[in-house]
TrEMBL record:
Coiled coil segments of this chain: none
Keyword Lipid metabolism: no
InterPro entries per record: MBL, RibonucZ/Hydroxyglut_hydro
The protein's name: Exonuclease
Superkingdom per UniProt: Bacteria
Keywords: Exonuclease, Hydrolase, Nuclease
Species this protein is from: Sphingobacterium alkalisoli
Taxonomic placement: Bacteria, Pseudomonadati, Bacteroidota, Sphingobacteriia, Sphingobacteriales
An example Gene Ontology molecular-function term: RNA endonuclease activity
Entry keyword annotation includes Transferase: no
Gene3D superfamilies the record matches: Ribonuclease Z/Hydroxyacylglutathione hydrolase-like
């Protein structure tokens, strides 16, 4: 029978800390040992003495953090277990972006699973999520609301096929931009895809890993003025700086309704689970307890009241 330790993983000012293995997960400040679930900036930071992540995660971090000591990185293969102190650790694909990982921690015959960010929707550009059984599921709750249901991604991306106008498509540079490029290549092959110079190196890394080829060109200032049927992928800061851009359709890809305001088309494509997929994931994981992070777990707690114990992860301010 599982002996669940309420303080096995706690939230501190530096990040999520496991004192039983003396390591942090996705720490916000420099620490000795950091396990990184994926390479997005709110999870992967520089300055740690030891950085453990999947091959792709480390490649992305090396691209972003040029001053980080290369000897600090250690590549962790999926499904290859290792120990930190008495804690057995295994990384499994999370389906969020290329290289994203769920982190399974086993201690005294109890299984604690940190999801990181994850999704169940198909995404040919990265490893698909692997369901993992756990006694304690530590899950993000970005869209933990019964009112939120992500639409079919093919139907959403097909909206761009309905216009011959050039499109300025706002998206996050890592993960979302590559997923959108592939979807556009497949669903809207008549569209020429151009990417911002900050996105292009990430596309190159994705193509190097070889899941699916991404067809695109690097943007130059003349291309959007010459002809139609072009899509220009830009990061959020660039997108927001062109509020009055002329002769283009403005679109931003996100699961958040607030980011669809003032755009010419809505494009609800998210790299997180919605309510239905969150429930499916919990069913497949079959936990005895659910600890919530990154969002509001109140509706999840109400839904499982009397069935599964759901609470926010414990917080400790002194570490």
């Amino acid at each position: 029978m599982a002996n669940i330790l309420a303080d096995f993983l706690v939230e501190t000012t530096k990040g999520y800390y496991c004192r039983y293995g003396d390591f942090y997960i996705d720490p916000l400040m420099p620490v000795d040992t950091a396990l990184i679930s994926h390479a997005h900036g709110d999870h992967a930071r520089p300055g740690h003495l030891h950085i453990l992540g999947t091959n792709a995660t480390i490649v992305f971090m090396q691209h972003r953090f040029a001053k980080q000591d290369l000897n600090s990185y250690k590549v962790i293969d999926y499904s290859a277990s290792f120990f930190l102190a008495g804690v057995k650790i295994t990384f499994f694909p999370a389906g969020h972006i290329l290289g994203s990982a769920q982190i399974l921690m086993e201690y005294n015959d109890t299984r604690y699973l940190y999801t990181g960010d994850y999704k169940l929707q198909d995404d040919a550009t990265c490893e698909p999520l692997v369901f993992v059984k756990a006694d304690v599921l530590i899950t993000e709750t970005t869209f933990a609301n019964p009112a939120i249901s992500h639409p079919d991604q093919i139907e959403e991306i097909s909206k761009i096929a309905t216009t011959n106008h050039n499109v300025m498509l706002g998206c996050y540079s890592l993960g979302k931009a590559q997923r959108l490029t592939y979807l556009l290549n497949m669903v809207c092959p008549e569209k020429a895809i151009y990417v911002h110079h900050n996105i292009a190196p990430i596309h190159h890394i994705y193509n190097t890993f070889g899941f699916v080829p991404l067809k695109y060109e690097i943007y130059n200032r003349k291309v959007m003025k010459d002809g139609v049927n072009k899509v220009y992928l830009v990061p959020p800061l660039t997108f927001n700086s062109y509020l009055r851009a002329k002769n283009v359709i403005r679109v931003f890809a996100s699961g958040w309704k607030r980011l669809q305001h003032n755009n010419d088309l809505s494009l609800y494509i998210s790299d997180h689970v919605d309510w239905k997929d969150l429930l499916l994931y919990i069913e497949e994981s079959d936990p005895k307890e659910v600890w919530t992070v990154h969002g509001d777990g109140a509706m999840l707690r109400d839904y499982f009241n009397g069935k599964i114990a759901v609470r926010d992860i414990a917080k400790i301010s002194t570490l």
